[in-house]
Amino acid sequence: MLADKGVQLNGITLVSTVLDIGLLFGNYDQAYVNILPTYAAAAWYHGRIADKPPLEQFLQDARNFARGRYATALQMGNGLSSEDRQAVAAEAARYTGLSAGYFIANNLRVDPDRFRKELLRSTGQIIGRLDARFTGSSPDLAAAGADYDPQDKAITGAWVAMINDYLFRDLGYKTPLTYRPNNYGVFPLWDWKHSGDQGDQASADTSVDLAAAMRENPNLKLLAVNGLYDLATPFAGAEYDIGHMRLGPAELQNIRYTYYAAGHMMYIDPPSARQLHSDLTAFYAAAQ
Fold first, then answer.
1. Which of 209, 216, 264 is nearest to 242 (CA)?
2. Domain ranges in the chain?
3. How far is CA 152 from the centre of its chain?
4. Taking 80 as the threshold, does the pLDDT of residue 25 lie above it?
């Protein structure tokens, strides 16, 4: 919209990104492919990976498995042989810390809420959705999925207190409305329809708009900022969405990704916040 009105940006930063919302929340095979590397990161962090190899190489191996043998197995559907199903489940278990039997029981497709419950089920704990490093107590050991987000509960009190103090005391802002720190509770009310560059969409995929803007403005640079432990918007999902935009070689050179050993809001983690500050400073300087 800015470009159409004559305002040409030279840089865009996307933080914890999802461009194709239908793919994120739909029951699509690609959604399971996209989230498996984040399962691997969470399992690695919580000590569920044998010998705990270096994280960066382990996640690249998980990407390769997810986009290769795992994706092929999901695409096979009921045509996948029993032997191949067992073999893929065993390899998925090696990357995610779950059992091969659990993958088989879930038809090789373990959704995030179930993963958050299953990974540490033996200790009676669940892990966070927005940041899988966070854990919380979950006494119902038979439940299929997690019943709350430990990361959300850990930071919401401090966040809401600080933002209200800033709004009311420092800025003098007055409102009878209640501040909502997230979309929990109102999510079902959102309208996901979108009028994009290629017409009306029942479920928003803004990658087509971003791709059009980058094609029309060859100087537009893109920085995608990702938390490795973010189960809400998985880093491999951002890679998939951006990687499937219709761009030429010149535009592809303008895309950069950064990764942080943190979750959806990597800036609440002091080392990641410092790294983010440095990365943003460098990106802004390069985009001038």
1. 209
2. 3-19+192-286, 27-145
3. 15
4. no
What is the maximal distance between C-alpha atoms in the chain?
66
Report how far Cα 184 is from the mean position of its chain's Cα atoms. 16
First to last CA, the chain: 21
Q: Is 214 exposed, middle or buried (0-12, 13-18, 19+ CB in 10 A)?
A: buried
Tokens 């039997």 sit on residue = 101
Eight-state DSSP code of residue 178:
P
Over residues 184-238, the pLDDT tens digits come to: 778 778 888 898 777 888 889 999 999 999 999 999 999 999 999 999 999 999 9
The residue behind tokens 């929340």 is: 25
Supply the Cα-derived Rg of the chain in whole angstroms: 20
CA atoms within 13 A on the CB side of 66: 28
The domain over range 3-19+192-286 is classified in CATH as 3.30.565.10: no
